[in-house]
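Notebook p. 47: complex prediction with cytidine-5'-triphosphate.
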Amino acid sequence: MSIRTVITFGTFDVFHVGHVRVLKRAAALGDRLVVGVSGDALNVAKKGRPPVFSQEERLEIVSSLAVVDGVFLEESLEQKRDYILEHEADVLVMGDDWAGKFDWVSDVCEVVYLARTPSVSTTGLIEHIAGLP
Ligand code: CTP
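Predicted complex, structure tokens below:
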């Protein structure tokens, strides 16, 4: 019987419960979960600011989780298909903030969008902490 590999991507900065839940649900869709952690330069390019935690720290945090079998550095959003093929992924999981945006890789794997955990985000946490007295 072949192993079903799930792949997902994200920044996972200021790690929070929404991150844990999406990774647990992604892992439950297969036998093995591989996570592409987006690099610092990619975040600066896309969001205009560096993450709070460095890519090395974020890779260390995500790789420490029991549901995660492997991590790698995601250096370009456009290389999704290459990463999927390289890691022999059968399923791509993304949060539904990306709904429809990765249907273009459905020729190489199944694409599943999972509902986000409400009321928590890295941006919200940073704003909350910055506003504390
Ligand atoms: N995620 C989730 N529920 C949340 C927040 C994030 O399911 N409340 C998921 C995203 O959909 C994505 C993964 O966690 O699949 C990584 O998301 P990331 O962008 O790193 O986290 P955010 O908290 O959304 O960060 P930001 O506020 O900077 O966009």
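Notes: Residues 39 and 75 are 6 Å apart (CA to CA). The first helix runs from residue 17 to 27.
Next step: compare against the earlier run before touching the bench.
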